[in-house]
Write a structure and sequence with these properties.
It contains six helices and no strands. It is mainly α. It starts with a helix and ends with a helix.
C-alpha cells in the first residue's frame, strides 16, 4: 500500500527537458508521412510535456487517457528515445518468421 506522500508523488508529472537533437528527432517523427501513428502520438506527448503542459491537457489534445500520457512521459524520462518504442511482448517466441508464414499460406492455397 502506498503512503499518502507516495500516492501524491505518483500523481506529479515528471518534468521533461529535451536536447536539441531529441526535439529534432521528435519533430521529424511527427512531420513524416511515413511514421507509424502510434509513434507520432507518443512523440506529440513528449513534445507537449517538454512545453510544460499538464497530462490532462496533453491527453485531450492527443486522444489518450491521462494514465497513458503519464506512462509515455515516464518512459521517455527513463529511457529517452528508446522509451517510445514498444516493449517485447510476453510469451513464447514465434516458431515461424514472416517469410515462412507467407510461404506456408501459399502452399495451402495451391492444394
Amino acid at each position: 500500500m502506498l503512503s499518502s506522500v507516495e500516492a501524491i508523488m505518483s500523481l506529479v508529472a515528471v518534468g521533461i527537458e529535451l536536447a536539441d537533437e531529441e526535439r529534432a528527432s521528435l519533430l521529424a517523427i511527427v512531420g513524416s508521412p511515413r511514421s507509424e501513428q502510434r509513434m507520432v502520438t507518443r512523440a506529440r506527448v513528449v513534445l507537449a510535456a517538454a512545453d510544460g503542459k499538464p497530462n490532462r491537457q496533453i491527453a485531450t489534445g492527443v486522444g489518450l487517457s491521462e494514465r497513458k500520457v503519464g506512462m509515455w512521459r515516464n518512459r521517455f524520462a527513463q529511457r529517452r528515445m528508446d522509451g517510445l518504442r514498444d516493449l517485447p511482448r510476453p510469451g513464447a517466441a514465434r516458431r515461424y518468421d514472416h517469410d515462412k508464414r507467407v510461404e506456408g499460406g501459399a502452399a495451402q492455397r495451391r492444394r
